[in-house]
């Protein structure tokens, strides 16, 4: 029997349904609660092993990795480095209004590290599916500026505050880039300039909201956002690296930008458990 003769309408339909589920996963703001078809496909993925294998095979072919599946956030996928769906930092910087230069990539990366830390300052927050974090543009900018101040002090103590060594990690060199940027240079009409650090943080949070990771609640404090379950899954996946970098900074308290302090409870042991 030839391979073609083994293809049946039911198998073609199953492949189509599996592909449709992956398509839903690639629409970041789509939720099962808003679409009955999506909800049914998620239920089928979780209960039908054969269907789940089809979905995994399609993701494998597209260089996608399945991170989680849930009735609330649906199927969560991440792209591998070689995937056509991958968003590289250079492309991301351009999409958020920059030129994609190395300095800008560093600043955007720091903004995302600050966002994750403010959203989940404690391991228990990240492991709790019901937890909803709150982040603000001003708060993230204040966190990153403090991180860079500490890096600058550490570099000065090591005598490396003028000419960094060639093997200096990106995070340790980043303070120079960040501190050279003004926090809030304004345009003539008072609008926020994208090249300022406040502007870049604002772009980062807007990008996360567009990807279904955050939900904007108000314009307070430069923009106030709530985390989604999709963001929690993504941070948990990248958490070991992100929070290891946080620990290297030695930051034990963070501010929301208006004076409220939160204690950071991440430890080496907690990071190793991720």
Features:
274 residues, 7 strands, two-stranded antiparallel ribbon, three-stranded antiparallel sheet
Description:
α2 crosses α3 and α7 crosses α8 (170-180). Helix content is 53%, strand content 11%. The termini are far apart. By secondary structure, the protein is mainly α. The longest helix is centred in the middle third of the chain and has 21 residues, at 137-157.
Summed up, what is this model?
This protein is mainly α and 274 residues long. 53% of the residues lie in helices and 11% in strands.
Strand content: 5-15%
Largest sheet: 3 strands, antiparallel
Average pLDDT: 80
Oligomeric state, counting identical vs distinct chains: single chain
**Rg calc:** 21 Å
Which segments are poorly predicted (pLDDT under 50) over 5 or more consecutive residues? 164-169
Strand sequence of the main sheet, in spatial order? 3-5-4
Which secondary structure elements does this structure contain, and how are they paired or packed?
Layout: H1 9-25, H2 36-47, H3 49-61, E1 64-70, E2 74-79, H4 89-95, H5 102-119, H6 123-127, E3 134-136, H7 137-157, H8 170-180, H9 197-210, E4 214-218, E5 224-227, H10 229-249, E6 253-255, E7 261-263, H11 268-272
């Amino acid at each position: 029997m030839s391979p073609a003769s083994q293809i049946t309408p039911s198998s073609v339909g199953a492949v189509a349904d599996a592909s449709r589920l992956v398509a839903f996963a690639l629409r970041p703001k789509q939720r099962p609660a808003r679409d009955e078809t999506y909800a049914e496909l998620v239920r089928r993925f979780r209960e039908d092993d054969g269907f789940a294998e089809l979905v995994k095979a399609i993701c494998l072919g597209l260089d996608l990795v399945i991170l989680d599946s849930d009735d609330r956030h649906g199927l969560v996928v991440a792209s591998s480095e070689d995937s056509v769906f991958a968003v590289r930092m250079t492309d991301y910087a351009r999409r958020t209004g920059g030129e994609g230069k190395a300095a800008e990539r560093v600043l955007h990366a720091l903004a995302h590290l600050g966002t994750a830390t403010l959203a989940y300052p404690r391991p228990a927050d990240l492991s709790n599916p019901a937890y909803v974090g709150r982040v603000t543009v001003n708060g993230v900018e204040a966190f990153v500026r403090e991180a860079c101040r500490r890096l600058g002090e550490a570099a000065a103590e090591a005598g490396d505050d003028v000419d960094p060594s060639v093997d200096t990690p990106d995070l340790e060199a980043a303070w120079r880039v960040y501190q050279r940027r003004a926090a809030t240079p304004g345009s003539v009409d008072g609008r926020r300039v994208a090249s300022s650090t406040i502007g870049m943080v604002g772009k980062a949070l807007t990008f996360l909201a567009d990807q279904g990771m955050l939900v904007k609640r108000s314009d307070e404090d430069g923009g106030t956002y709530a985390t989604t379950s999709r963001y929690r899954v993504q941070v948990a996946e990248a958490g070991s690296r992100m929070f290891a970098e946080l620990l290297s900074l030695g930051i034990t308290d963070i501010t929301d930008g208006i004076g409220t302090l939160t204690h950071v409870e991440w430890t080496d042991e907690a990071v190793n458990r991720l």
